[in-house]
């Protein structure tokens, strides 16, 4: 976010000014991060500099106001669009309708739609229903579905699939059953995407028997499973630690004429690593190379984590070094895995070197990165260095969590600095992260050891 704003500031002070396209790209990226007020503020700066907005700029603004619930401003921007002679496109109208719907004004959204097009169109309604479901407003989406049925418009497979996906995310199986019955009544056949959504929801609820039954029903009704179907079922088995069943499914890919993708391998590799069957995970990793599949950072991170947790640190370090020498770019998660492993074997200084390397590679350590190092320092009784990292977090606008405070409070208590630990405890109470039972237990233990009973 800060980088985007810094780039905008640099561009707006250039002579001559860059094209509107470059500004739109920055505004678009800020909107993707959901910093709508910032995007609006920057667009105002553009106006003050005399930069003429394009239709894209104004559409971004409409989107921002809709997300913030400022529909009056959104329609004002639509007025600017028309005043400048731009022709609003389907995206502009859909954004406004979604904004109205999201703010509890579904009726206005429908009326607005009817004024824009002569005949109501299921495609435009599907866009709104899809948007509402993705924003978690599934009840509103279902209300809109009932509206369009009442208007004599036949929902299609996309309508039902969006709603089923939404209700699956809420675990509302009664609503899902009713929708499936509606599909039967209207002779709308579920497709592979619909079945995959249902299978995924069942797997996440650990209902593997029902998930397999759904897959069999899908085949019986003439829908051919795809790689997503098998990956989903494999994930379900691995979730229950039944890796051998997942492997059996993996081995049937060929029978179905399906080519495993990177995620098929990742699911099994993660499953094997969690079951501490590292050699089998490594065997699959090697098999990927023979099938010309390129392992991604998830593959490497999963293997590195599994190797570290099974005590094969030297091999994990080799893999980590390999991705630095031409493999996929390691991310913060990959570094955190290595930091944690180094701290656990008390190689704190090596961990600090790796931590500093993150900055050199353009990566920003997160709260977990700091927590790992702070905990490592505390366990090594290097409390002052841990406190320095704690201060650094504030300078980098990272908010310490309960794990950060508990590690420091524990380290301070074990170093005999109970009064300092008590000060940190009070900070937690005065607007810090929630105090949990671990925090109290650490302090109770420390006070009892110094024979200071607290009432």
TrEMBL record:
| Pfam assignment, any one | PPR_1
The PPR repeat units are at 54-88, 121-155, 156-190, 191-225, 226-260, 261-295, 296-330, 331-365, 366-400, 401-435
Q: Which UniProt keywords apply?
A: Repeat
Q: Which PROSITE patterns match?
A: PPR
Domain of life of the native organism: Eukaryota
Q: Which residues, if any, are the signal sequence?
A: none
The GO terms this record gives for MF are: mRNA binding
Question: Member of which family?
Answer: Belongs to the PPR family. P subfamily.
Which protein are we looking at? Uncharacterized protein
